[in-house]
Each structure stands twice: as C-alpha cells, then as structure tokens.
Amino acid sequence: MKKIIMMLTLLFLVACSNNEGETLNFQGESENWKVNFTSVDTGSSSQNTSYTIVYIGSDTAPETFDYNLSATPSQKDFGETNAKLNKDGLKEGKEINKGSKVQKDEIIVVELNWDGKTEKVELAPK
Q: Which residues does UniProt assign to the signal peptide (predicted)?
C-alpha cells in the first residue's frame, strides 16, 4: 500500500511540474528594429515558437536583410539570409522546437544585418 501511495504521489508531483501551456514572451528594440519572440510549451519535449521582426528605422526599409536569433542556455539558434519584410513591414516566423526548451531566464539576442549595417537586439521577458 505504501508503494502505491508513493507512486501516486510521485506521479502527482511530475504532473504538477509540467509546464504545458506556459507562454513566454520576450521583446526588444534597437534604433532600427523591434523584435517579439513568443514560446508556448506544448508538452514533454516541444515548444511552438513565433517571432516578429519589424523595421522601425527612419530610412526606407531594406529590400532584404539577414538575421540570427540565439538563446542561452537553451542553445536555440536560427536565422535567415536575404529575408524580406512583408507589405506591412514585418517578418514573421513560426517553428516547432524539440529538445531543450526556452526558459524564463533566457538571454536572447537577435543580430540583424542590412545595407552594410549591423545591430543587435537583446530580448527581455515581458
């Protein structure tokens, strides 16, 4: 009987520690760019992430740009070369991540390169 109670208690604790459905939002802004990053925990080993990159500079928006998002300690790293903004001036993306998950205390940096210029945007939890 004690073993059954211990197993049920253990299962209850594991179920309570599951972050399924938890949403993490990060935002940051530089002189020319604004970036939003959202991660939704979908279960034991995956997260859905989405991001929006907006050009907010005073010059004409670039035709193309490169970006790379890197997160520590989860070691997420992705980007795109020759990305284009849509008609609303946005670059939007979605990914399903498996493996290590983005955490509340992540350090997320987005590096953007366009027209011979470079800026880094550090994203903070919101």
A: 1-20
CA distance 110 to 15: 34
Nearest to 72 by CA among 103, 29, 113: 103
* CATH code assigned at 83: 2.60.40
- Enter the pTM of the model: 0.80
> Are 24 and 44 within 8 A, CB to CB?
no
- 3-state SS, residue 116: coil
Number of structural domains (the chain) is 1
Looking at residue 43, the DSSP 8-state letter turns out to be S
- Determine, yes or no, domain membership for 94: yes
